[in-house]
Amino acid sequence: MLKHNLLCFAYFAFALLLAATFIAQFQANDLPGLQDRPWVLRVVVASLVVSVAGWIGVFWCGRRVIERAGVEGLATIGLIAGMQFAISYASTIAGAMLRPLLGPFTIFATGPADEGLPCLLLAVLIVLLPKPGTLMLTYFTLFVLNCIFGGSFGLIQLLFVTVSIALGEAILALARVTTGPSLQQPAATPPRGVMLRLAVTIGAVNAGPLLVQYCLYQALYRLEFATWFIVAGTLIPGFLYGAIGGAIGARLGYRLRRTAR
């Protein structure tokens, strides 16, 4: 417990230092393209606060979430997370080939594979395991796979995944997808209201971290994005493709649940 508290305190101190650095640089006009868009900096600072809250939640509830999932649940999460990683890896290769032709608009062409299919599999997983913590375990598994096979370990990547987990779990809980009784009830086919709610929620779970990611890229890597591009990238590949994938995944998840029983 003491070790967890020390790690949590260290990450909290790092997040506060990073937030103070962003604010100081912004006031000194050292962040290009952000002088007329202070909301980007606010999103970055808010993401750091959310990240700290996410780590506190992981330290306090991580063991209970793993025990509640059980061996069968962990195996299901590992299998579907592996499929998500394989799809994302193949889509990354395809995106690298299309980027010389389409430039930044590549995200709209590869969005169905980058965003839609992972959201489809996430919806399947949530239907099979409608519990708080399912998204957390899935994203952490993906993060470990990316670290091992993609060599993408770093504090920035850790910040990205923590923000995604905290926002995703909060949205699923507030929409009563993982905390309500709707997905717990046995049914041969998904009720229309449940499927619509899950699709919209999965779209929001996918779009929220994507918006934060654009803002973090501008603040951390000095990459400039037009406001219309951020909005389009968040709404079309993020929300729309994610919601479509969530709707299809809900149906598939109910079919798999019926087969398992």
Describe this structure in words.
- It contains seven helices and no strands.
- The chain is mainly α and 261 residues long.
- Helix 2 packs across helix 6 (192-221) and helix 6 (192-221) packs across helix 7.
- Helix content is 82%, strand content 0%.
- It has helices at residues 2-27, 38-102, 106-128, 134-150, 155-174, 192-221, 227-260.
Please give the domain count. Answer: 1
Structural class: mainly alpha
Summed up, the helix count is: 7
Rounded radius of gyration (Å): 19 Å
Short description:
With 261 residues, the chain is an all-alpha fold. Helices cover 82% and strands 0% of the residues.
Keywords:
mainly alpha, 0% strand, globular, 7 helices, 261 residues
Secondary structure: elements and pairs:
Blueprint: H1 2-27, H2 38-102, H3 106-128, H4 134-150, H5 155-174, H6 192-221, H7 227-260
